[in-house]
Structure formats: structure tokens, C-alpha cells
Amino acid sequence: MLNSQYTGRFAPSPTGHLHFGSVYTALASFLEARTHQGLWRLRFDDLDTPRNVLGAVNHIQQTLETLGLHWDGEVDYQSWHLDEYHAVLMDFMANEQIYRCQCSRKDLGDIYAQTCRNQNISDNFLHSLRLKTDNREITFNDDLHGHISQNLAMQHGDFILKRKDNIIAYQFAVVLDDIRQEVNHIVRGIDLLDSTPKQIYLQQLLNLPTPQYLHVPILVDADGHKLSKSTLATAVDLTTPNRVLFQLLQWLKQNPPLELENENVDDILKWAIEHWNVAQLESIKHISI
């Protein structure tokens, strides 16, 4: 696994800072990469422009550097690659693999009923772009959760690649992003596990390799809500980065020795890399803080 590459993904959030939930997943990804002598890439998911905040990118980078989470190579931004996403969409359209959809969220159930699949909707009307799914079984082995299998057509239906507001959908963009950055190992939160079969389906349609996946637990608050930008989770306090890392290691079930809390960032990360054991997170979906 010497040539493995991982990616740390961040979205410039409305609050403009990194909360514990984001840093928790980033640390897991970083440790998995470094333990296997892999490269750790940094990418900003900045396609959802209404949610981007001036200065958020710099704050995120400063937070990562303060915590000793140094990335490899140049930082990548999804917004640099709009032409690439749209070129693939044009190919899909030419091959009749996607179609225009005017359904609103209130029209939708858990499984899309192909309402617009056979309708000839003009490009002049407000619409999203949906990918046609078929009855193939999408299967993969997650490093923590084992064998995962989904039939997209039966369990999700056709899904969106470009929203009505012209913003490229997450599950489409990241497939092209990972290939561009040569990422072959992906570590992210279990809340995104349900998106993985959609991405593998896209990889198969595009004849792209499928990376190895590892979905770690998410952090939740006292009410059981995921720590996220949408719930305005508070920023990580960087006045004592060593204690932040120590706490994260505890939440990652790595059982750091108590004396490690007072060491510097570099020494804590050195210990964490040497002792990283992702199996400690098996069968855990969320961790309350």
C-alpha cells in the first residue's frame, strides 16, 4: 500500500470554521494514510457556492496545520473543474444515460418513481439532471462494516447529478475528483455510507477503478444529532492543540496513555501513527460527546 493516496475533504461552511466532527474524521483519514505510508491529499468541496464563506478556506488550512495534519501536494478545489463535470454530463446526455427532471422534493418519496424519465422536458425549463439506474447489484467491502450490497434501482431509484440550481451533486463530483487526485483509499463518516453505492455505480459506468472504502463513526451531541455545519457546531479551540488531539484519539477509541495529553503535537501524532488501530471502531456507528 506504499502508493496509496487518501483525501481530506472539507466544505467551506457557513460558520467558516472546523468543528470537532470534521476534525475527527480528518484525523482518522490522516492516521490511516500515514500508517500505510500513503499520501494525504486536501480538497475543498466548494461547489455549493451559497454556503461558501470568505476566509473559511484559510481558517480550515490553519486549523489542520495547527493540529499537525499536513497534507501532501497542492490543495485542490472542486470549483476549478466545472468544465470537467459538465463534459461528462454532456456525454451522459448524448448516450441517453441522464434525463431532465422537474420534480420537486415534495414530489419525491424514498425511491424515485422515474416520473420524468420518459418525458421530453425542454432545456428551457428549470430542471435537474438524473442518472438512470438499472437492476444491477452494487457490492463492496468496507474496511469496518464488511460486505455492503445495494440495488440502486430498487432502493433509491434514479438519482440527481446536477441540481435545479445548476450545482453539481456531491456523489457525482467526488467520483471525478478522486480519479483526478489518484485517490484509491477513502476514509469518511458513516453518514456517507449510503452514497457509496451511487459512486461505485458511476465508476462502473465510466469504466473507472473503485477505491477501497472505510466509513468511521460520526460524533453526535447529547440529543443524538450529528455534529455538523448545519447544526452550527462550535469551532475547535486551538489554544491547546495537544489536548484537542488527545481528546480526538479518545473518541477514536485508541486509548492514548494519560501522560500523552501533555506532549507536543508532533509527539502525539507520532504515537498515534505507531499505534493506530482502526479495528477499535468496529460495530460503532456514532459516538456521543
Explain what the structure shows.
Strand 6 (137-142) and strand 7 form a beta hairpin. The chain has 289 residues and is an alpha/beta fold. The chain has a domain at 5-80 and 212-288: 3-Layer(aba) Sandwich (Rossmann fold), CATH 3.40.50. It has helices at residues 20-35, 56-66, 82-94, 152-155, 170-180, 196-205, 241-251, 265-275; strands at 5-10, 39-44, 76-77, 98-101, 128-131, 137-142, 146-151, 159-162, 185-189, 212-216, 218-220, 286-288. The radius of gyration is 20 Å and the shape is elongated.
Per CATH, which architecture of the domain at 5-80 and 212-288?
A: 3-Layer(aba) Sandwich
Strand line-up across the major sheet? 1-2-3
What is the residue-averaged pLDDT? 91
Coarse shape: elongated
Oligomer: single chain
Can you tell me the CATH topology of the domain at 5-80 and 212-288?
Rossmann fold
Largest sheet: 3 strands, parallel
Assess the beta-strand content as a share of residues: 15-25%
Integer-rounded radius of gyration: 20 Å
Q: Let me know the CATH homologous superfamily of the domain at 5-80 and 212-288.
A: HUPs
Coarse structural class: alpha/beta
Number of contiguous helices: 8
User: How are helices and strands ordered from N to C?
Assistant: EHEHEHEEEEHEHEHEEHHE
Helix amount = 25-40%
CATH class of the domain at 5-80 and 212-288: Alpha Beta
Number of strands: 12
Cα(first) to Cα(last) distance is 33 Å
